[in-house]
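Course assignment 3, question 2. Fill in each field.
Student: A.L.
Task: Predict the tertiary structure for the chain below.
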Amino acid sequence: MQAIHIPQLLRSVEQTETIEVQDHLPDLETLTPVQGTIRITHRGNYLDVVSKAEAIVTLICDRCLQQYNHRLLVDVSEVIWLQEASTSVEEDLFDQDLTSTEGLVESLSPRGYFEPDRWLYEQLCLEIPPRRLCDPKCAGIELSDSLPVPTVTVDHRWASLEALKKQMLN
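Answer field:
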């Protein structure tokens, strides 16, 4: 996927670009290609990005350490604010009206580029579960009762102290 020049998006039909995705993303190892769509609409001072996509990844269970396949489903809509990067931190904190951008987290330069592959990668990564379980009832690694019991060998230099310890316990 190629980056989209934001001013060029204004010249598109209905100021919208729709991308059909059916490819592997470079930084995300998936069993199947990522399949879906991304629709980017220029709304003047923000981009409206809507995507539906899916892929299958292989994860490792946190309990039993077995590999299992997990379907990642993305059905997301995000608003990306278009604004020039400010030159000063103080200007960001004190001179900006935060009520107009409340809830808007991402921002891009209105003369910059939107990278749909990077954005989709981030959305898919957010769908990877933090607690990876192959099955909610996974018991974990089974321990065998037939494990050999380690024999405790006492250094002969500590033998008299060990004997004193046994006298105190009796």
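Instructor remarks: The chain is about 20% helix and 30% strand. The helical segments are 6-9, 89-94, 116-127, 159-169.
Grade: pending
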